[in-house]
Amino acid sequence: MVENGMIDQLPTHDDPEEAIEVLDNLKLRFHLKDRWRDTYPDTKTYTFPQNKPGSQSRIDCIYITDKLLLLTREWKIEVTGVPGADHKLTSV
C-alpha cells in the first residue's frame, strides 16, 4: 500500500481508501509522519521494483515524530548490496 498513488507508484493509481484511512488514523494517534516524503515532497523514487516491467512503488517508509526528526539527517533510498534483495533500502 502507498499513501499517494500519484507519486509513490507506477503506474499511478490509488490504493483502497479503507487501508489508507487506517494508516492515517494510526499516524494521527501517534503523531507520526513519513519523513522521507516530507524531506523530498516531489521526488519520484521507488523501493520496490516489481517483475512487471515499469511497475514499481515506494512501500518502505520510516514514520517518526517531530521530536525525533531533530535527531535525523541524510534520508536515502538506495540499493542494499544484498544479493537477491527485492527492495531498496530506506535509511536515515
Structure commentary:
The chain has helices at residues 17-30, 35-39, 66-69; strands spanning 9-10, 33-34, 48-49, 56-57, 63-64, 76-78, 89-91. With 92 residues, it is an alpha+beta fold. The chain has one domain (9-91). The protein has a three-stranded antiparallel sheet, with no helix packed on it.
Question: What is the count of distinct domains?
Answer: 1
Classify the helix fraction into a percent range: 25-40%
Provide a count of the helices: 3
Number of strands: 7
Residues in β-strands, percent: 15-25%
Radius of gyration: 14 Å
Major sheet size, sense and barrel closure = 3 strands, antiparallel
Rounded mean pLDDT is 90
Low-pLDDT ranges? none
User: Structural class, judged by helices and strands?
Assistant: alpha+beta
InterPro entries: Endo/exonu/phosph_ase_sf
Quick summary:
The protein is of the alpha+beta class and 92 residues long. Helices cover 25% and strands 17% of the residues. A three-stranded antiparallel beta sheet has the order 1-4-3, with no helix packed on it.
Q: How does the SSE layout of this entry go?
A:
Layout: E1 9-10, H1 17-30, E2 33-34, H2 35-39, E3 48-49, E4 56-57, E5 63-64, H3 66-69, E6 76-78, E7 89-91
Antiparallel strand pairs: 1-4, 2-5, 3-4, 6-7
List keywords for this structure.
alpha+beta; 7 strands; 25% helix; globular
